[in-house]
Amino acid sequence: MSITIKDVAKKANVSASTVSRILNNLPGYSEETRQKVEKVIEELGYQPNAIARGLINRQTKIIGVLVPRVSDLFAGEILAGIEEQAQDLGYSVMICKTNNRTRDYLRTLYEKRVDGIIMVSGAINPDSYKEIEMMNVPVVVVAAQPNYPKIPSININEYQASYDAIKYLVEKGHSHIGMIAGTKGDDRIKGFKDALNDAGITVTDHMITYGDYHFDSGVQGMAELIENYPSITGVFCASDEMAVGALSCLYKHGISVPEKISIVGFDNTSAAKKAVPPLTTVAQPLYDMGESAIHLLLDPSSEGNKVYPHHIIERDTVRSLRRK
Amino acid sequence: MSITIKDVAKKANVSASTVSRILNNLPGYSEETRQKVEKVIEELGYQPNAIARGLINRQTKIIGVLVPRVSDLFAGEILAGIEEQAQDLGYSVMICKTNNRTRDYLRTLYEKRVDGIIMVSGAINPDSYKEIEMMNVPVVVVAAQPNYPKIPSININEYQASYDAIKYLVEKGHSHIGMIAGTKGDDRIKGFKDALNDAGITVTDHMITYGDYHFDSGVQGMAELIENYPSITGVFCASDEMAVGALSCLYKHGISVPEKISIVGFDNTSAAKKAVPPLTTVAQPLYDMGESAIHLLLDPSSEGNKVYPHHIIERDTVRSLRRK
C-alpha cells in the first residue's frame, strides 16, 4: 500500500503532525478531529506501519510481561489488570511464560524493543538483574519479593498478611494449626511462626510442610499434615491453589471441612469462591496490582515499593471452636 | 551500541551470514558453531535489533493470539500449548484479551506486523472476516466453530462429544437428564437432543437452561434445573466452569453429588480434577490443539478443519443407577 500519513492529512484537512498525534495516542486535538481522521484512515485503508514507526519514535507501544505460568489463576488475575490498563493507554501487551528461562526472555523482549517490562511473581536472580541493568528499559516487579531496591515493585505486606491469617484462626479458638508453605524461609512462614509464638503456642517442625504453590503439592502437603500432626484443627495454605488441593485431599479421606479441619487460603483468586466449600482466604488485590504496574512502568519518576492492603475474606472453610 | 553483526562474525571466525542464520533460527551450521557465536555475542554484548531486522526480513517473529479472557482456564491451557511450541520454533507470542473488540485487536496486531494470528475460542463475525481478508496475514482458529472455510481451524467434533456424554449418562441408567448449555442452537445442544431422542426420551424445554460458560451462570443454571425439573438425576454442562458452578449450587442446597444428582462437564480443564468431588467430563486435548495451531499457522499449504478426538474422563460425579 502506498498511502501515506500525508494523504490522510490532506483528505482530512489537518496537518500530518495531527494525524501522527492521533495515531500515537498523544493529546492535542479535539474529539471531532479524531473522529474525522479515523474516518479518513478507514476510507483510504491506511495502515500505519508500527515497525517503521518504532524505529523513528523509539516506541513500539508494546509492554512485555514475564509470568511463571500463563495457566495460573493467580497470574491470570494480575494479567487482566495489566492488559485492560495497557489497552486504555494505547499499549499492546506481549506475554511470555518464562518457566526457568527468565534471562532468555528478557533478552527477547529487549530485542523486540518493548517500551517496558513487567515481571509477575518471580524473584529476580543476579543473572536477570545484570540483564535488566544492561537493557536500560523500565522494569516493574509485581507480587514478588522486591529484592533489588532500584526496581520498583508492587506487593502486599506478606509477613503481616500471614500473621493476620494465623491470628484469625487463633481467635476462632484453634490452637493446633499447621501450614502448607511455599518458598522456604519466606515472610509468610515468618508471619506464621511469630503469630503462633505471640499466642503462646510453641512452633515445631511437624507443623509445616512445603509445596510449590500448585494444586498437587497442596494435596500432598495436607496428607503429610494429617499424618504428622493428627490433632490438627486448622491449616493455613500459602496459596489458594494449595488450599484447594488440601480440600481435595480431605474430601478423599472423608474428613469434613470445616467440621473437623478448618482451612485458610492465600490470594483470593477465583478458585477460592468456586471451591466446595467456598474458601476463606487472605485477599491480595491482584487486578488492582496489575493496573498499578502499568502506571508505575510508564512513570519515569517511579521507584521504591508500593504496598497494597490485604484483608481476610470469610467464606465457609473455618469453624469457630469457641463456645457460643 | 555500535557493535555490528560483522564484529561478531570476525571475532567468532565465521561469516556474517552464519551469524545471521543463527540469530534467525535458520538451519545450516553445527551446534559447535552456534555455541561459539553465542559466546561471542555474549562477550561483545551485541544486541540484534529486532525492529530493524523486521523491516528487512519482513518477519517480526511475533505471533498474535486473540483470546476472549486471559484468566479463563480453558484459554489458558490452549495458550500453554501455543506458547511452548512457538518458543521452540523461535517465535514470541503477543496475547490480546479481546472482550468484544476483536476487530480493533486484529488491526493492532496487523500494525505490529505479526507473522500470523491465532484466534482462540471466538466465532469470527463478518466484520472481523473482512479485516482478516484485507490483512493478508495467516490466521488460524482454535476451539471455535469454523464458520469460514478459508480460515483453517482446529476443533473436536462438538456434536458427537455432546452426544457421547448423554449416551454415557443413559448407559448409567439415567433417564431424567438436563443440560446447562452455552450458545443457543449450537452443536452441543443438537447432540444432547439427538442422544435423548435416540434413547427414547422426549426432550422438552424445561430440560435446558442457558449460561455463558462461566462459573456464576453454572450456579444459576443448576438452581433453575432443580426448580423446573425436580425429578432430574443427571446434568450435562457445556463447560467445566459451569459444572463447577453446578457443584457449588448443589453443595449450598445440601444436595449430594453423585448420590442425588450426577454431573458431567466439558473440556477437562484443570478445574475438573480440582473439583470436589472430582468432575467426570468430556476431554478436549486443549494443550495439543494449541501446539497444532502454531504448525497450521506456519505451514503455507494448510487449510480446512483439523478435528481432534474427544473422550470421557471418568471421575467421581456420576453414579450408576443400574442394579448391580
CATH C-level class of the largest domain in chain A = Alpha Beta
What amount of the residues of chain A lies in strands? 15-25%
Oligomer: homodimer
With helices defined by DSSP (H or I, 4 residues minimum), what is the helix count of chain A? Answer: 13
Number of strands of chain A: 12
Distance between the termini of chain A: 78 Å
Pfam family, one (chains A, B): Peripla_BP_3
GO molecular function (chains A, B): DNA-binding transcription factor activity; transcription cis-regulatory region binding
Protein name (chains A, B): LacI family DNA-binding transcriptional regulator
Keywords (chains A, B): DNA-binding, Transcription, Transcription regulation
Sum this structure up briefly.
With 324 residues, chain A is an alpha/beta fold. Chain A has helices at residues 5-12, 16-23, 31-44, 50-57, 73-88, 102-111, 126-135, 158-171, 187-198, 215-228, 240-252, 270-274, 286-298, and strands at residues 62-67, 92-97, 116-120, 139-142, 153-156, 177-181, 208-210, 234-237, 262-267, 280-283, 305-308, 311-313.
Description:
The structure is a homodimer of 324-residue chains. Chain A folds into three domains: 44 residues, lambda repressor-like DNA-binding domains (434 Repressor (Amino-terminal Domain), Orthogonal Bundle), CATH 1.10.260.40; 118 residues, Response regulator (Rossmann fold, 3-Layer(aba) Sandwich); 127 residues, 3-Layer(aba) Sandwich (Rossmann fold), CATH 3.40.50.2300. The first copy, chain A, has 324 residues and is an alpha/beta fold. Chain A has a six-stranded parallel sheet, sandwiched between helices. In chain A, strands 7-6-8-9-10-12 form a six-stranded mixed sheet, with helices on both faces. In chain A, helix 1 packs across helix 3, helix 6 packs parallel to helix 7 and helix 10 packs across helix 11. Helices cover 45% and strands 17% of the residues of chain A. At the A-B interface, helix 4, helix 5, strand 2, helix 6 and helix 11 of A face helix 4, helix 5, strand 2, helix 6 and helix 11 of B.
